Prior knowledge:
Elements: E1 9-14, H1 28-39, E2 43-48, H2 49-52, H3 56-65, E3 70-73, H4 80-93, E4 99-101, H5 103-108, H6 110-116, E5 121-123, H7 128-139, E6 150-154, E7 157-160, H8 183-189, E8 209-212, E9 215-216, E10 235-236, H9 239-253, E11 257-260, H10 269-281, E12 288-291, H11 303-311, E13 313-317, H12 325-331, H13 337-350, E14 353-355, E15 357-360, H14 367-380, E16 385-388, H15 396-403, H16 410-416, H17 433-450, H18 472-477, H19 479-486, H20 489-498
Parallel strand pairs: 1-2, 1-3, 3-4, 4-5, 8-11, 11-12, 12-13, 13-14, 15-16
Antiparallel strand pairs: 5-6, 6-7, 9-10
This protein binds cobalamin and iron/sulfur cluster.
Amino acid sequence: MLTKKNGMKVLLINPCIRPNSPKKLLNVGMAYIATAIDNAGFDLEIVDVDAHRYSNEQLESILRTKKFDIVGIGDLTSHFKWVKGISALLKSYHPHAPIMVGNTLGTSIPNLLLKKSDVDIAVISEGEATVIDLLSRLQNHEPLEGCQGIAFKKEGKIITTPSRKIIPEVDSIPFPNYDLFEMDIYLECSKWTIPSPEMLGIAFDDIRAMPLVTARGCPFKCTFCFHAFQNKKYRWRSAENIVAEMKLWQQKYGANFFNFWDELSFYHHDQVRKFTRLLLEQNVNTHFVGSCRSELIDEENADIAISLKKAGCMGLSFSLESGNPEILKAMNKKNTVTDFITQAKILQEAGVATYTAIVLGYPQESKATIRETFSVLEKAKIYPSVGYLQPMPGTPMYTYAHENGYIPDEETYLESMGDRQDLRINLSKHITAEEMEQVVIEECRKLNKVLNINLNENELIKTRVYRKAKSEAFLHSFGIAAKILEEDTSEVENKATANQC
Length: 501
Ligand code: B12
Ligand code: SF4
């Protein structure tokens, strides 16, 4: 019999984004939604494909017999194909249960998603309040037209309701209730999520890392970037609220490392100063990595780098994207190469690791601009996460690619999306795809040598954490990583791919 706390049973399906990865990453966005649903008293069940790595056949047999009144599917835009398949399957077995999808897919292409799949309701942008409003209306048989922040199918038409205001005070959002997920599985794999485990001074197998979202959105509008809080005000949590969450996970799950999964963790000097001061005052004694922009730290406020280090910051990521000023302008990045190099130097001197990403393949890209980007990386002494421009729906670069004939059919393109480390569309007006890939690999090879990173040929682009596992010393100190070496090459390749964000 169906147990109903509040008259409705909600099923959430957490997809697996990278099936070959040893990493199993808690779905924080879904955790916030699940927490809101559970707190509102609805009966909730989560089918966690990522945690269990269910095959499509296993998932089908699980879903066939499940009982629920509404189902929500987790996603990224690059998961369109999968969401389409799962929604068709759900409809075939449960034709009367509405299917909802949120996150970047629901936010960036609500209409296309509703037209081209069996999804019934797209939840747009911030999900907590919208989902509860939606569930209450479904439960009380009230019209969905009154629910702000959704698009839904009705009698063959798509109805989009007015957008919902964002939660003004992010500190008021309850911490995610991770007990709704199988934490043993996630904590066991969490060691794979550390960018530089050798810096920690903790044995690899003892690492218990947790994700934490300290801010929502980003005040910038780079032309290639889309996130679910696009065009919404940038909001960051108070230092007190973040530290309280860190301490809770230390106590509850033995967390000794925090990955800040933000668009932008540190924007203002005061924000960083308050946070680092509080961590030290309260003796939190932990490690974390976060993100910032290249202009956060310069010679005049280099003290920030030192206090970050003292407070347990192991690394900061700040994206260069391109070393060419014209391309940076086209990206609307509002960054300078000089700031990037200065900040890298200051952080490195303070003992904070520096990570960056590059986006190659804008229309202005040429062999010379690619070389320019790599020469900046060499000066900054950072080996990047290399990626190609993968136009994301909802961005100016997607509109450009669509309008200029690079995306003749949107559905086909959406189905082809995946890791940005693979070049799918070449927008460059100056070089062919083959030329671009060739110069990129040559430049990666050179940088690998100059920075003495020791990456294998097959890891030059699909690298990140795994590249650290290549040094003998690293392998000896960290048991599990060593096992990878004994595995066959295809497995090694998968793991390298898996570690690329
Ligand atoms: C963790 C993460 C990942 C993890 C995902 C793990 C997981 N299971 O969640 C991994 C490493 C796998 C990943 C991969 C990629 N990622 Co990523 N990732 C993130 C990151 C850093 C954090 C996500 C998060 O926790 N957000 C915080 C929560 C609170 O926000 P949220 O997820 O948006 O959730 C809210 C709403 O969206 C909504 N919601 C969320 N889920 C659901 C579900 C339902 C049912 C409903 C109704 C509502 C709802 O409610 C939530 C609360 O308000 C974000 C950046 C960011 N800060 O969002 C990028 C981000 C999501 N990733 C991004 C990108 C580009 C990628 C890659 C394509 C990059 C690459 N290397 O190729 C790959 C995908 C590759 C592939 N093969 O498909 C983009 C989004 C692109 C897009 N349009 O989908 C982001 C926004 C970063 C950016 N600014 O570029 N990523
Ligand atoms: S790329 Fe970074 S700085 Fe630019 S809009 Fe996206 S999150 Fe903000």
